[in-house]
Amino acid sequence: MDESMSMFYNGAAQKCICINTGYIERPSALGQSVAGWNYYLILDERCPRESGYVYSKIFHSCYKFHKKNSSLSYDDYSTICENEGGELMKIDSEKKQQHIADFLG
Known about the structure:
three-stranded antiparallel beta sheet, two-stranded antiparallel ribbon, alpha+beta
């Protein structure tokens, strides 16, 4: 449970399935499309929810996705993150890359 970032819950069956990846939208490919299962992204108290941040237990950090805007540069995005009290994440490992790809679905 400590590594769970999201979960499926079936109230009628009183069962939950926790997964160590978070998805913004309910993933369709995880085999839980049967009626009665609800999807939840687990948010952590360490992250400002009102700003849209999600906590990664894998990387022990909060992060947020900003929609790509081709008119913005790296420095622009860096400034946006700094203004929100964070810093622009550097994707410097295959593990981070895969985690972000999984999160985005």
